[in-house]
Amino acid sequence: MQENICKRCFLLNCGREDTYKNIKEHIDRLSPNERCNGEEYGKRLDICAGCEHLSGGVCLKCGCYPEFRAAFAKQKCPYKKW
Ligand code: SF4
Known about the structure:
Elements: H1 17-28, H2 38-49, E1 54-55, E2 58-59, H3 66-69
Antiparallel strand pairs: 1-2
Residues 47-48, 51, 53-54, 59, 61-62, 66, 77-79, 81 line the site of iron/sulfur cluster.
């Protein structure tokens, strides 16, 4: 387990590059219909970045990786923040 994990960071910013690479490969395989557009994706992640439930790249409220969940057009924040 990596020490000094930033509680308000995403996978890439907290030393979890391997996990990020894995989910990025899944994101890249989503069809255009499944995938959230880039602008909306950025807005969603900005909200997660300021959320008190983000810790070490994981949403503590639903257990997801926000970078992955937010990539799906039809997904929603479990707390309706986006
Ligand atoms: S998905 Fe929702 S509850 Fe989870 S970190 Fe993002 S904004 Fe917070």
